[in-house]
């Protein structure tokens, strides 16, 4: 019975290491925000507060923040100048 617990624990640790490594790869390949222009970050609905917060959080690292806007009929995250 003990070997089953050890195996389960080892699998859990390997899964956690894999997830942490995958997360760092995804974060490092993300495109940095471009100020003064629209950024395509996926869904960015003007009426959805969570989308507005996500857009602002995305832009704040390089710009003064941002908000969801409609440009050419598409919902985009526009970072402030």
Automatic annotation (TrEMBL):
Residues 1-27 form the signal peptide. Transmembrane segments: none annotated. It comes from the Eukaryota. One of its GO terms (cellular component) is extracellular region. Keywords: Antimicrobial, Fungicide, Plant defense, Secreted, Signal. The keyword Lipid metabolism does not apply. Pfam families: Defensin_like. It is found in: Secreted. InterPro entries: Defensin-like_20-28. The keyword Signal applies. One of its GO terms (biological process) is killing of cells of another organism. Belongs to the DEFL family. This is Knottin scorpion toxin-like domain-containing protein. The lineage of its organism: Eukaryota, Viridiplantae, Streptophyta, Embryophyta, Tracheophyta.
């Amino acid at each position: 019975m003990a070997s089953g617990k050890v195996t389960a624990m080892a699998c859990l640790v390997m899964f956690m290491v894999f997830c942490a490594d995958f997360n760092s790869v995804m974060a490092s390949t993300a495109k940095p925000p471009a100020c003064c222009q629209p950024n395509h970050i996926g869904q960015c609905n003007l009426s959805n507060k969570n989308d507005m917060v996500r857009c602002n959080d995305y832009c704040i690292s390089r710009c003064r923040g941002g908000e969801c806007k409609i440009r050419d009929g598409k919902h985009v995250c526009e970072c402030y100048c």
